[in-house]
Each structure stands twice: as C-alpha cells, then as structure tokens.
Amino acid sequence: MSSNLKETIRIQREKLTAMLAAEMHELAIKCAPQLDEREALEVLLSKTLPKLSYCKHLYVLNADGMQLTDNITQSGKEGTHLGRNRMDRPYMQGIIGTTDFKLSDAYISRNKKRPSFTAIQVVRNDEGERSGFLGADFDLRELPGIKEAYQEPDKWRQIKGDPAIRSVVFHQQRVESQMDKHLDEVIPIMNELITEHGIFHGKLHFSSSRATIWLVDDPFNYRILNFDEIIDPDICLAYPRREYHEKAIVPADKVVSVFEIFRSLRFADENVYLRAGSLNVINGMVGLNFSCDGSHYMRFDEFLEKSLDFWFGTST
Fold first, then answer.
1. Could you give the C-alpha distances from 239 to 49, 211, 225, 242, 246, in angstroms and in order?
2. Angle 116-117-120 (CA atoms, 0-180°, nearest 5)?
3. Is the Cβ–Cβ distance between 55 and 137 less than 8 Å?
4. Do residues 210 and 227 lie in contact, with contact meaning Cβ atoms separated by under 8 Å?
5. Domain boundaries 5-142, CATH class
6. Cα–Cα distance for residue pair 91/114, rounded to 1 Å
7. What is the four-CA torsion angle of 219, 223, 229, 233, rounded to 10 degrees?
8. pLDDT value of residue 315
C-alpha cells in the first residue's frame, strides 16, 4: 500500500493515461479530415467507442470548443449537447499550447453531480494546425477498482481547528465533567474492553462524559456509551471475551498507559486541556482534540515518549 496520497493518485492517473492516450491519438487522426461531416464523425465515434474501455461519452469539438457531434454513448446518441460550448469547462483548461493529450483532474459532473474526469485529445490537420478536439468522459464509479488502497501515514499530524475557538481559549476554563471525577473507574473499564473484549478503537469524550467504541466483530458500526455505562464494570458483560487481536500493534500492556496520559493532558492546564482522546490498537494511532480545537494524530509509541512539556510548548 502507498502511504503517500498524491503518489497513489499519480500512479492511478498514469495507468488511465496509458489506457487511453494511444487510442485517442489514433481516433483524432481519423477525425481530422471529417470535421465538416457530422454524420461521418458520429459513425466513426460509434465504431470506436467499444475500444475505449469504460468511456461514458465520446464527442468532437471544433477549434473554439464548440461541440460538432452528439454525445456518443454505449447505448446510442445523446442529442442535447450538440452545439454546446465546452471551452470554459475544467478539462479544457491548459490544453491549448501545452499538450496534445490531457487527462483532467477529477471534477463533479454538471448533470449527474458525480465525480468524473475527461480526456481531451487535440485534433490537427495535415499542416499540423489545431482544428478541433476529441473528448471522452468517464464516470469514476464505473472505472475498474484499484488493487491497492491508500494507506494513511502514521507520522505525527497536527491540524488547527476553528480560529474563533482558538482566539478565546485563554478566556475559558475547564469545567469539571462527570467523567473527570470518575477516571479511576473509566480508564480500567476502557482498558478491559480493549484488551479482553475485542474493542479495537476506543475514544473518551471527557467534556461530554461519554465513550465511543468499535468492535472487531462489528467494525462498521460504533457504540456510544453514556456516563452511567462507561463507569459500570457490568458493561464488560455486554461484549464477548476476545483474545487481544493478532493485528494489534499496540502491546496490550501499553493500552492503559495511553489512557493515563489522556488523564494527565486533561488536568495539566485549566485553559488548554484535552477534550477527547482516542486509541486504535490496530493501526497504533492516538487521536487528541484540545480545548483550542486543535487536533493531533500520532503513533502510540511516539505519544508515550512525549512529556507534558511537549504538549504545552516548552519542549520538543
């Protein structure tokens, strides 16, 4: 899996370009002498469309971006776009004077409001002058699935939140919540749920006195535990015993340590304090949300190495 989002997208675009460029170049050569013959162009496009895998619409424009043909589709012709000026569309930007083939960035289609992209091929006459464009539209949901998914990086990430909240952070103070008063019960229960009952992602919402949990047996749904539930050891009876998951990269004996640091961050400062903290033992990531509306994401081992001074600006 790639851990670089832009690199993953670049690789996919290269694959799509390789799939389309040669066929569209060949088709543009065939279109060039027939730009004044709409019916002949549409016949040519109809014959070629099956060769352009996953293409939704195929059409020809003149040199000014005016559509010369109907949209040719797998099921026939769509006549509503004949004469349409496409020069202002996102996929036409940057095509003139830079390249003869362009695969556009993804955009939201005007009609169906779905992520789409367009391949544009310049059509040139015998003298090499630009005489038109060949366009091919694709719906992203109809493309073949990629084999490898983007993998979220595990390096420390800091994300600033709402400026309105940040600007008044020193005019507010932490208000003791119900959970604050009962962390001696909450933390051991959360630790037990994660290490013995198949919870792979747990989040404590300190300010609102609740918890959110995800189970390995049912990862597509989350459960919300209210205050009365998260302080009651009987909650463990609601979830079956499970061996600590083999894919967990956080050692079982380190789970409680992470939540104890959450406790410290909650009480360390009356103005800047932890509002919510989460741990995912499968990917090893810790998530933090502070009163200043800043968020942090960090690997558990890096998180455990940081002192309180790190979080409050006196140490790195």
1. 55, 15, 13, 9, 18
2. 150
3. yes
4. yes
5. alpha beta
6. 15
7. 0
8. 44
Closest by Cα among 115, 94, 119 to 104 = 119
pTM of the model: 0.64
The confidence score (pLDDT) of residue 70 equals 92
C-alpha 24/C-alpha 135 separation (Å) is 9
| pLDDT averaged per 10 residues in sequence order, the chain, 316 residues | 61 79 91 93 92 86 93 86 86 75 83 84 91 90 58 62 54 83 95 96 96 95 94 91 95 97 90 92 94 85 90 58
Residue 1 has what pLDDT?
41
Angle at 138 between CA 3 and CA 18, to 5 degrees: 60
Q: What share of the chain is helix, strand, coil (3-state, %, to 5)?
A: 35, 25, 35
How wide is the angle at C-alpha 309 spanned by C-alphas 308 and 313, nearest 5°?
125
Q: What is the 3-state secondary structure (H, E, C) of 134-202?
A: EEEEEEHHHCCCCCCCECCCCCCEEECCCHHHHCCHHHCCCCCCHHHHCHHHHHHHHHHHHHHCCEEEE
Q: Which two tokens stand for residue 61?
A: 């424009």
- Cβ–Cβ under 8 Å, residues 265 and 288: yes
Q: Where are the domains of the chain?
A: 5-142, 157-311
**Chain center to CA of 162:** 21
